[in-house]
Design goal:
There is one protein chain. This protein is α+β, with helices and mostly antiparallel strands and 281 residues long. It folds into two domains: 5-105, Alpha-Beta Complex (Aspartate Aminotransferase, domain 1), CATH 3.90.1150.30; 123-279, Beta Barrel (OB fold (Dihydrolipoamide Acetyltransferase, E2P)), CATH 2.40.50. Helix content is 29%, strand content 33%. Strands 7, 8, 9, 10, 11, 12, 13 and 14 form an eight-stranded mixed β-sheet that branches. β9 (189-193) and β10 form a beta hairpin. The radius of gyration is 22 Å and the shape is elongated. The relative contact order is 0.11.
Length: 281
């Protein structure tokens, strides 16, 4: 969706002095974040203003202000403002100041310290329970063999059943089929490519111990609305539970933007529905 470039320049003029400003594409438009909190944005030719629940009724009663209801249900802390409502610079400044005041009142987003022994992707847990994990792995592999591997395997894993290394080993064993189940991961890093957001269990996504949760582009707006923060930011240092299929994926290396014949493997879990993912801690 195209958005008003003139309004983008005007908003940047109002926010350019903020050192915590981050501009991101989301909601099919453009969003301006302050200290990782969404402040305002542009959808088409409309201003998207995050004015807070306490200011909602008052702001909604202003001329040219409309409910932000593109999800089918009004969001009680945000409004759309039609172009006539911010044509004058003073009117735009007034809306932006309301947004800034509200966002600055929100508590800072502090990264959570990883909790000990809370997630299956902790490497030290694997090492400390190496013998037990090997036995579990062998049992699971035997189950695959006995089943003839005629269909995609199913594993319900948690911190007490399998480590991330077990899961990676199972995806390798079962390739090209995947391993279905419910998995728990501590997300340490995130990135995006081709509009897909990847939540990674290791800071280096090429680490052989890494599993990536791939979030489909169609969910990004819905997750941003649900949590109030862009997913690439929100899920860092969060323990999540994902239901889906872990699968071995071939990743080709690129040189100067061109795919080469060299490649390596990653383990991915694709998320295409909000019901597949939830935050545990």
């Amino acid at each position: 969706m195209a958005f008003d470039r003139g309004l983008e320049e005007r908003l940047l003029e109002h926010l350019q002095d903020r050192q915590d400003l981050v501009v991101k594409r989301m909601f099919g438009g453009l969003c301006f974040l302050l200290s990782k909190h969404m402040c305002c944005g542009i959808i088409g030719d409309k201003l998207m203003a995050r004015i807070g629940p306490e200011n909602y009724k008052k702001c909604l009663s202003q001329p040219y202000a409309k409910e932000m209801d593109f999800t089918g249900k009004p969001i009680k802390s945000m409004v759309f403002v039609l172009p006539d409502g911010f044509e004058a610079d003073d009117d735009l400044a007034s809306w932006v100041n309301i947004c800034i005041t509200y966002v600055d009142s929100l508590p800072p987003k502090q990264p959570k310290a990883p909790k000990e022994n809370t997630c299956i992707n902790k490497v030290h847990e694997y090492k400390s329970n190496e013998k037990v994990d090997i036995m579990r792995y062998l049992i699971l592999v035997c189950m695959l063999i006995l089943s003839g591997c005629s269909s995609t395997s199913t594993v319900n894993s948690n911190t007490d059943v399998a480590s991330v290394m077990n899961l990676i080993a199972l995806t390798e064993e079962n390739a090209p089929r995947g391993v279905k189940g419910t998995f728990q991961f501590l997300i340490k890093a995130a990135g995006s490519q081709n509009n897909v957001i990847f939540l990674n269990t290791e800071t280096n996504y090429r680490d052989r111990r890494n599993i990536s949760v791939a979030i489909h582009p169609k969910l990004i707006d819905a997750l941003t609305i649900k949590y109030g923060v862009y997913p690439e930011i929100f899920f860092i240092n969060k323990t999540i539970e994902v239901t889906g299929e872990a699968k071995r994926v071939k990743i080709h290396l690129a040189v100067d933007g061109r795919k080469t014949t060299k490649y390596y493997f990653q383990t991915h879990v694709r998320v295409t529905s909000l019901n597949q993912i939830k935050v545990l801690a």
